[in-house]
Amino acid sequence: MADALAIPIPTFILGLFDYLTDSKIPDRKLTQDLIFAGTLTKAIWLKNFSLPIKVFGNLPRKWSSDELAPTLKLEDVLPQDTAPYELPDGIGLVWDTDSSENTHYFTYQQLNSPHKLSLYLAAELPVILPSFSPFAPFITSHHLGTTLDDLTQLPLTFDYDRIQGKKVGQSLRRGEHTTTLLQKIETFYS
Fold first, then answer.
1. Are the CB atoms for 125 and 102 separated by under 8 Å?
2. What angle, rounded to 10 degrees, do the helices at 115-122 and 162-174 form?
């Protein structure tokens, strides 16, 4: 995003958003169950998604529950402070568009640090995200999930490092990314 904004002043990169919570995360079981938490308006693909998926979010006003795929189980939005604890075991899907064409949501995914990515990682869940996401290299190199080019590549299997998942989840819940960024800013301006 810093490159896209091209601001001619010092820029400090946060990276992943922290997800502050005191909620104790349950011991996770690795399952192939897909989870999606977030704004459904950006996820029109959910209407025709053929695999079973649990979706935590509000039905957009323009959508009818009759339009939803029978494989979609719509759940209530979870409270932000307890969501990492309350999410069920599964794989968090970080996906905001079904198109790799030059759409607003495609561009958004190339620049954005998705809130749902931080939520899933704070919940110590493996993730699947677009291969063009700026976080793709981080996720794959730390064995926290996998990437794919489009949703037709599902279902798939991948390695998940539980120890690394716990470490990253704890750092997000403690606010370590923000603390590190603030220290960098303080050092720069000292």
1. no
2. 120
Contacts of residue 107, defined as CB under 8 A and 6 or more positions apart, other chains included, come to none
Q: Which two tokens stand for residue 164?
A: 């690394």
Instruction: Report the alpha-carbon distance of residue 63 to residue 142 in Å, rounded.
Output: 37
Written as six digits, the tokens of 42 are 């950006």
Could you tell me the pLDDT band of residue 97, with boundaries at 50, 70 and 90? low
- For the whole prediction, is pTM greater than 0.85? yes
Per-residue pLDDT tens for 42-70?
Answer: 888 888 899 999 999 988 888 888 888 89
Helices (H) and strands (E) in the chain, counts: 7, 6
CA angle 181, 183, 189 (to 5 degrees): 105
CA–CA dist 117, 56 (Å, integer): 14
